[in-house]
């Protein structure tokens, strides 16, 4: 039989051995697997970043379109200048030919060949007119050549800028596609319960709107509830945040920019306490998301992929950057 002291010695040895083995094993991660709330938060963060990239891409498209307009105008100016240069050069050639043929006499020549004082005066008048015509034609030709040179320079600069903008637009599109792919992976990992909650249409009740353009715009936006969000979509069956707002005001006969950046500068600024139906609410420091106020508490917006156009609490959407009133 083993004595009590011997048993204590054996137990102590076993404990010591276990401690040594545990120290040799790799330590388990301290953090647990992300839960549903963390996954949803990650998805929303990725979608917020994607929203900014989407607006950047749309702005690059607008910039390219504007620059293309400048390029077209420059090409038109160049064609006009070249035509004027060609016509004036022909006029100068005719005057030069007349001069070379002896039509441009000096005052002494006119005096020597004149039959009378009146004949001399007539000849001098013709000489002065011809000289003035020649000088004017030469000046116009010089101006036309300079205009053609300037138009050529402008057209070349516009062409180079257009190429850079096109490359920038392609880059933004590639960045957006990658961001969306990352967001989709996270979305696919969300539970069906969370996905179904995201797909809810929310408040679909009839809502009274005020008179005027703001009310008409709000009525249009409310009618889009339940339609899906698609990056870069211009409707009518799906929207992104800024296309919804642009189309809503277009339906009321008011033109505003396509991007949330442009909409953040439309109309006039109002404070949070002054918000009323139809006001445009732009979110985040990047101004990458936009919604339309239903009243002083709620807003309707195209939120993000996986979420339909719906009504939400104004302050729950995100940090407000600026509020713009288009009418009034």
Give an account of the 3D structure.
The protein has 328 residues and is an alpha+beta fold. The protein folds into two domains: 36-100 and 108-189, Helix Hairpins, CATH 1.10.287; 202-325, endopeptidase fold (from Nostoc punctiforme). Helices cover 61% and strands 8% of the residues. It has eight helices and six strands. Strands 1-6-2-3-4-5 form a six-stranded antiparallel beta sheet. The protein starts with a helix and ends with a strand.
Notable traits:
328 residues, alpha+beta, Helix Hairpins, endopeptidase fold (from Nostoc punctiforme), 2 domains, 6-stranded antiparallel β-sheet, 8 helices, disordered N terminus
Tell me briefly what this model is.
It is built from 8 helices and 6 strands, in the order ααααααααββββββ. The protein is α+β, with helices and mostly antiparallel strands. α2 runs antiparallel to α4 and α6 (212-223) crosses α7 (241-251).
């Amino acid at each position: 039989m083993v004595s009590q002291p011997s048993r204590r010695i054996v137990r102590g040895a076993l404990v010591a051995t276990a401690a040594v083995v545990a120290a040799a094993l790799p330590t388990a991660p301290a953090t647990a697997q992300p839960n549903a709330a963390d996954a949803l938060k990650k998805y929303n963060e990725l979608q917020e970043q994607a929203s900014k990239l989407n607006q950047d891409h749309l702005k690059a498209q607008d910039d390219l379109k504007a620059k293309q307009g400048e390029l077209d105008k420059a090409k038109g100016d160049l064609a006009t200048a070249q035509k004027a240069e060609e016509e004036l050069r022909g006029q100068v050639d005719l005057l030069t030919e007349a001069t070379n043929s002896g039509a441009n006499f000096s005052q002494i020549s006119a005096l020597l060949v004149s039959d009378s004082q009146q004949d001399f005066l007539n000849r001098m008048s013709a000489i002065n007119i011809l000289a003035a015509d020649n000088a004017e034609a030469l000046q116009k030709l010089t101006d036309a050549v300079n205009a053609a040179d300037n138009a050529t320079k402008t057209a070349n600069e516009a062409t180079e800028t257009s190429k850079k903008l096109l490359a920038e637009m392609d880059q933004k599109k590639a960045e957006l596609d990658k961001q969306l792919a990352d967001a989709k992976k996270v979305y696919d990992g969300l539970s069906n319960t969370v996905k179904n909650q995201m797909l809810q249409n929310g408040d679909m009740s009839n809502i009274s709107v005020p008179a005027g353009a703001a009310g008409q715009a709000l009525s249009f936006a409310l009618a889009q509830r339940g339609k899906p969000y698609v990056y870069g979509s211009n409707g009518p069956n799906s929207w992104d945040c800024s296309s919804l707002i642009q189309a809503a005001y277009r339906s009321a006969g008011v033109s505003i920019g396509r991007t949330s950046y442009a909409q953040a500068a439309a109309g006039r600024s109002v404070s949070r306490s002054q918000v009323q139906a139809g006001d445009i609410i732009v979110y985040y420091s990047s101004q990458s998301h936009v919604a339309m106020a239903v009243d002083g508490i709620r807003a309707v917006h195209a939120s993000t992929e996986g979420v339909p156009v719906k009504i939400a609490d104004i302050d729950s959407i995100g940090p407000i950057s600026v509020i713009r009133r288009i009418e009034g």
